[in-house]
Amino acid sequence: MIRYVLMLALLLPLSAQAGPWPREVGQVFLSLSGERNRAGASYASVYGEYGLTPRTTLGVELGRTTGETTAILWWQRALDDGQGVHRIALQSGVGAVRRGDDLLPLAQGALSWGRGFDRWGGGWMTAQVLARMTGGAPDPRSPDMPSLAASFLTAKRVVKADLTLGLRPRDGLMVINSLWLEDRQDEGFAARLAPSLVFDAPGPIQIELGVVQPLSGRAEQAVRLGTWLEF
Question: N or C: less crowded end of the chain, CB within 10 Å?
Fold first, then answer.
């Protein structure tokens, strides 16, 4: 098991998800992430955030799995005034998916909520609902239809909900527990539990080690490893 984890650390850099708190103006957050299950299937991604204004954050996500590459550029706006304990943000994004020889359009929107607390050493709670539409491959039986229009006519939807509880039991350590719920038009409903530990490393780097435990749907147990960088 130790050898497997060390090998994965070399092969796969973890994913971070946008929360409702905006990035400080000019601040950058980067994450290199990956998962691999016992069957050898893997997913790797690069995720970034940039604080554009006091209430606006720009983000980019690049993901790679077997037979598919995804790129998304998104914009997030804080809906609250920064006062009180609750934070709410609205996000929209566009991108593309490469599947074989097909380049398909992608659009998404999300609503996020979060709040911090001081109990148990301090921590936070977040919830996000995200809807994504990915264009389908053009129908070869309709060669005269513009490819973009045909793609949207055969678009597939995905609805996701992420619930996260994060704790800081001591300096330099975070304990994160996430519940991922997903409903895919082509695969149905799936639920996964993702606990992880995040350790401070020298400089601005943090290391995350975790697992993904399927609760329902088509998925297998996986190991997660990642690095976070903030500057």
Answer: N
Q: Which residues contact 170 (CB under 8 A, 6 or more apart)?
A: 121
Rounded Cα distance, 141 and 231, in Å = 51
How confident is the model over 41-100, as pLDDT tens digits?
Answer: 788 889 999 999 999 999 999 998 877 899 999 999 999 988 888 999 999 999 999 988
Q: What single string gives the DSSP state of each residue in 52-88?
A: EETTEEEEEEEEEETTEEEEEEEEEEE-S-S-SSEEE
Quickly count: other Cβ atoms within 10 Å of residue 85's Cβ. Answer: 9
pLDDT in tens, 191-206: 999 999 999 988 889 9
The closest alpha carbon to 92, from 81, 106, 80, belongs to 106
Tokens at 23, concatenated: 């990035």
Q: Are 95 and 73 in contact (CB under 8 A)?
A: yes
Q: Please give the Cα distance from 189 to 208 (Å, whole number).
A: 27
Per the model's pLDDT, the better-predicted residue between 220 and 64 turns out to be 64
Sign of CA dihedral 14, 15, 18, 23: positive
Contact present, 204 and 185 (Cβ < 8 Å): no
Position of tokens 């098991």? Answer: 1
Residue 33: name the closest of 21, 19, 45 by CA: 45
Condensed to tens digits (0 to 9), the pLDDT of residues 103-126 reads 889 999 999 999 998 887 789 999
> Which 3 state secondary structure label does DSSP give 148?
helix
Nearest to 47 by CA among 88, 93, 9, 90: 93
Token pair 């979060």 in the structure block, residue: 114
